Amino acid sequence: MKQENFAGDSPCLVNIHNAACGNGYFRKEIWTGKHAQVTVMSIPIGGEVGLELHEGFDQILMVEYGVASVYVGKTKQEVKFFGSANSGCAVMIPAGVWHNLINEQNVPLKIVSVYAPPHHPVGTVHKTKFDSDLADY
Q: Which domains does the chain possess?
């Protein structure tokens, strides 16, 4: 599903906390520029971002609401618990590092994700993690 409010050629001012906390979708693109992209995510109770590795870009994950259990590793086999990130915390993931954020709390986890360079198509909306997994990019 796509949205039509892309503003990549223009500056964008948004209350990112409200955008993240008001988002009910697994992933929703907020803004995509030439060199960066902002998405918001809602991870359900017991859910996860999903173990992933980005070869060509860095990612910053900011927790706006809830607590994320953060797992990282240089290889898939070495992924282990790195720490807990609560509201106001940011996790910086360099390219080439395996990572996952898991919601082990009893409230939805609300996250802002910044990719540099952009990763998802403009207007991306994934209602569920299953939808995201089907997109496979």
A: 16-135 (2.60.120.10)
